[in-house]
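step 4 of 6: structure.
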Amino acid sequence: VVERLVVVGGDAGGMGAISAARKGKPDLEVVAFERGSWTSYSACGIPYLVGGEVDAIDDLVARSPEEHRRAGIDVRLRHEVTAIDLERGEVEVRDLDSDVTTREGYDHLMLGLGGVPVRPDLPGIDLPFVHGVQTLDDAAALLEQAGPRTDRVVVVGGGYIGLEMAEAFVRRGSAVVLVERSDQVMATFDPDLAVMVAEALRRFGVEVRLGCDVTGFEEGAVLTVDGPIPADLVVLGIGVAPNSALAGAAGLDLGVKDAIRVDARQATSAERVWAAGDCCESRHLVSGAPVHIALGTVANKQAKVAGRNIGGVHAEFPGVLGTAISRICSTEVARTGLGSAEAREAGFDLAVATVETTTRARYLPDTAPMTVRLIAECGTGRVLGAQIIGGPGAAKRIDTCAAAITAGMTAQDVVDLDLAYAPPFSGVWDPVQVAAREVLKVV
Amino acid sequence: VVERLVVVGGDAGGMGAISAARKGKPDLEVVAFERGSWTSYSACGIPYLVGGEVDAIDDLVARSPEEHRRAGIDVRLRHEVTAIDLERGEVEVRDLDSDVTTREGYDHLMLGLGGVPVRPDLPGIDLPFVHGVQTLDDAAALLEQAGPRTDRVVVVGGGYIGLEMAEAFVRRGSAVVLVERSDQVMATFDPDLAVMVAEALRRFGVEVRLGCDVTGFEEGAVLTVDGPIPADLVVLGIGVAPNSALAGAAGLDLGVKDAIRVDARQATSAERVWAAGDCCESRHLVSGAPVHIALGTVANKQAKVAGRNIGGVHAEFPGVLGTAISRICSTEVARTGLGSAEAREAGFDLAVATVETTTRARYLPDTAPMTVRLIAECGTGRVLGAQIIGGPGAAKRIDTCAAAITAGMTAQDVVDLDLAYAPPFSGVWDPVQVAAREVLKVV
């Protein structure tokens, strides 16, 4: 008997499971429903499209529907799954063009539902000039409205997407105001390091307004507690929520932030129903707590794990550190593990060190500043988190920290690591090790 | 009773021990003998000095003799230690300027003797136009002879220093021929990857002659089996040998390549005599074998460990992976752990994967190629080594591999790592993970 895999969602969280599943079950019949117009694309690339570094939307597509079809996947675009019938093992699907609804049976159901940009319940939030940016369809709508040039753009929210979009619109020639309700951009960074990111934005020409609450939107303006800000276009960068309404309505267990609850195999609470990516939970490798972290890296990994299990192989996703990186206005920023506040909330007593160093040996030209913060547990010296901000080549060092945290290394272990050195890359002690040596002084 | 520490060698291997030793023994009296004219400098910076990226020799000095003296260290330049009397706990020191020899007693003796450029026993090797480059004194002599411009430079030997010096002389405007006896440059890289480095050199304007044996030197030419090569100046880049003759003559045990044998505490075979850096052995973290790896990173770490032990704290140096990085003619190259041949020699059955990927998402401009090779053990999947060659931002990823190898991670563990991704840094799977996924297919 040939089994049938139904995939809901045409991007990484869903489609990423298929090849792994087929490895175990080569005859698997696969049908994939995507309510938008694209499959397997880089949503992370949208700011570069908006900023003009990427020419066309299609450049962001890694695998088109046609390519998927050639690989034997029955991809149906503009088909929205509107209900899951767990008992009968069926989904209800609406063809958005014909408005015809059908039912499709599954042996395995792979939910890669993705995330939705958080849209606060404010007056005017549904005005057409207010854009969330999550899918290529969102990007297409945004670009269509933006046209060749938009004079005044307001970005609401200072997360990665908000910051990258603010930069992108400056590159397009717009006057950009970034409005953030809290006292800092980049909530996943320690506040004093986030200050450096805000400064990078300001140097690049973004007007950054912190501690500024948005109260609503009206044609031509964003309304705030400090008065209206003129705007031809608004981008929401408040964050991403799991797109889990469909799963919740079907009776699947939801967890933190209403993300779909999954076990280490990416199995949901219902048999033969799996989930991966922005729609579901992950386990944090340091705190052990369930978290919702909407990142493409996680989606891809979770999808592979789900796929292997669908294919009959036991596989587990070990968890996340929330490792993230971005280039914001020529400044590289990265973080992994727990932030200082997060770590304290998780009950850790902290030894924190911050070092100011350089991206190359100090005696070389074009050396840029670089700040590394290492967060360790007092007493044991175990590394819990790290944050890096600096010039070219600075931020990818976060991966060394991520590997060290995953391995349970202490600051002394990090000092002992045989890391690479040559003058074009740093001083003789890698900046991460300089920070680890400072941690040892306070641990 | 105040103890007395005698340091032999004014660079990292020796001086690096002092502050750690004093932490344990604040009253420690310290005298340091350096036969050259500089202390605590970046020998790795010499190629950038020669190439014109660094203006003055003194720019490479991290801590001058005066600064050391202000820190209470009795630094004596142009003083050569000519003998060690282990029984009496004394060294014999010649003042190179006055030619007066004295004896100095020690409670602890710290040997940071460094390395010496390998000088093959060939006719004409002692001609003044043949330069080894290891110390700032070597660099000063080289620059003095080179003057503002040298027409024809021949570099003998294709190791890091040879390659970096070849590039530096091209930057100075010289015509540079690199002569290497074996079939590849960079002996620590797998041959097919070394080909890419040779190509980078050629693109930069270096004439690379492989499989070319040098038979001698005469004024104006390097003699080879393929005939003479005209040369106004010759740079030796054949490698670095431990400068261990003094230690050997004193009766200290020598090990691999005649490097001073040390235990994990950096203790030599004689009581209260310690060694660190290019003059001594290290233990390889993967093979467990003693190795001689002359790198500033290792010297600094070993010196700290020796210093802590001198200070009365037990400390151990865990070992090395031979992690190294360089920028050769705008191409970044890095390696860690065992190479393919080395790993086979060490008795491992190998699963090797090589991937061609890019330094940024493929859809972004200025994306450069990047090659990652991951070497793992068949069966277990344990990562044994890695090599990376590529454009800007490529090579520092070697540190992720170094951390993974140190932690004993498998290729699957590397795939599971939560590494950072954004389009300016790679595709969604970090290139190291792309390589790890390929390893899993052949493991």
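step 5 of 6: annotate
 - The first strand of chain A starts at residue 4 and ends at 8.
 - Chain A has 13 helices and 25 strands.
step 6 of 6: archive
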